[in-house]
Amino acid sequence: MIITTTGSIDGKSITAYLGIVGGEAVMGTNFIRDFFARVTDKLGGRSDTYQKELRNARALALADLKEEATGMGAHAVIGISVDVEVIGDSMLMVTVAGTAVTLS
């Protein structure tokens, strides 16, 4: 399945728009992770721990989106948007949405 942020796919024609599909992933962090992330923030640099959690959450949200689109009979999802939010002090939420389409 093709998943893209663009509104079209080169060399393919969209034959039907099946509707909006989405996926979500909410990931909890823990005290140890938060502590070391705060240390990294104070000293500067990147927080590998949070980056790994964000990548994992994005992958899970995209997998949900793909599953929903496949269930609708889609060949692709176009116009993907990705949003990341922080919930409270220790939760990360990644949402993805796009339009499921069939191609010729």
Overall description:
- The chain has helices at about 30-45, 50-70, and strands at about 1-5, 15-30, 75-85, 90-104.
- It has about 100 residues and is of the alpha+beta class.
- The protein has a four-stranded mixed β-sheet.
Shape: elongated
**Could you name the ranges where pLDDT drops below 50 across 5 or more consecutive residues?**
none
Identify the strand order in the major beta sheet: 1-3-4-2
Distance between the termini: 13 Å
Global structural class? alpha+beta
The CATH architecture term is 2-Layer Sandwich
Major β-sheet profile: 4 strands, mixed
Instruction: Give the averaged pLDDT, no decimals.
Output: 87
How many helices? The count is 2
Radius of gyration: 17 Å
CATH class: Alpha Beta
CATH fold annotation: Translation Initiation Factor IF3
Strand content: 35-45%
**What share of the residues lie within helices?**
25-40%
The total of beta strands comes to: 4
Give the ordered list of helices and strands: EEHHEE
Look at the structure and name the CATH superfamily.
Hypothetical protein apc22750. Chain B
How many discrete structural domains?
A: 1
Short structural summary:
The chain is of the alpha+beta class and 104 residues long. The chain has helices at residues 31-43, 48-71; strands at residues 2-3, 14-28, 76-87, 91-103.
